[in-house]
Amino acid sequence: DADVTQTPRNRITKTGKRIMLECSQTKGHDRMYWYRQDPGLGLQLIYYSFDVKDINKGEISDGYSVSRQAQAKFSLSLESAIPNQTALYFCATSNSITQYFGPGTRLTVL
Amino acid sequence: GENVEQHPSTLSVQEGDSAVIKCTYSDSASNYFPWYKQELGKGPQLIIDIRSNVGEKKDQRIAVTLNKTAKHFSLHITETQPEDSAVYFCAASTYAGNQFYFGTGTSLTVIP
Q1: pLDDT grade, residue A18 (50/70/90)?
Q2: Preferred mutation among A1, A10, A27, A43 to probe B, highest tally of B CBs within 10 A
Q3: In whole angstroms, what is the distance from residue A108 CA to residue B22 CA?
Q4: Does A94 touch chain B (CB under 8 A)?
Q5: If we measure between CA atoms, which residue out of A82, A103, A99 comes closest to residue A37?
Q6: CB distance B42–A103 less than 8 Å?
């Protein structure tokens, strides 16, 4: 997990606020992903990127945006947070076959 | 798109017994099936995977089987130990790895 870091680890914010979650990796992988985890729903893909110039929507991209600042950095933004975006968020990297996950960010929107 | 279903959602076993978790998938194009273990407060970690050209793979106490015809694959843990307690996720993807589709997770509790 130390190869993939996420900041912050925990965040409480209010409805309507803009918030950014950051992900960094030292594995040298081109592919990076953002997932959301809710109890009983497993992991749902929000966005993914295969290189700095490539951004793709996942299953549940509405209300989210991303930025791939460098090969090693992939950030997720909530432009105007709402309570149903309260969840655990994971960043992952991939060598195209295996995914490696970060430790997660627990986000609470009040 | 792909739909992965996972059962059971919760599983309790006595220490030393075996545990089996089953997943089904819908897209015949899927050919890579990893299993992840998620411990409390941590991200999922890959524990074993199988590709569609193989029917079974084993790594110490953990094994995975794949039935391509029936589109289902299973995780088998033998001689369970308390440290096996965690949430386990199955997933399906293609070799290209464009997207990974996850099951809803199984919370395994091993009772000492």
Answers
A1: very high
A2: A43
A3: 32
A4: yes
A5: A103
A6: yes
pLDDT at B99: 80
CA distance B64 to B20: 10
What would the mean pLDDT of B3-23 be, rounded to a whole number?
Answer: 97
Residue A101 φ then ψ, to 5°: -100, 150
Instruction: Quote the tokens at residue B44.
Output: 């999922």
B34–A98 CB contact, under 8 Å: yes
Exposure on the CB side of residue A15, measured as CA atoms within 13 A: 4
**What tokens does B101 get?**
């589709």
C-alpha closest to that of A93 among A110, A76, A73, A107: A73
- Could you report the per-residue pLDDT of A63-99, keeping only the tens digit for each? 999 999 999 999 999 999 999 999 999 999 988 778 8
Q: Is the pLDDT of residue B97 over 80?
A: no
| Residue found by looking up tokens 């965690």 in the block | B86
Average pLDDT over residues B74-100: 90
| E strands, chain A, in order | 4-7, 10-13, 19-25, 31-38, 42-51, 54-57, 65-70, 73-78, 87-94, 99-101, 105-109
Which of A18-22, A45-49, B4-8, B94-98 comes out lowest in average pLDDT?
A: B94-98
Token pair of B7, please?
Answer: 């059962």
Closest CA to A93 of A37, A50, A57: A50
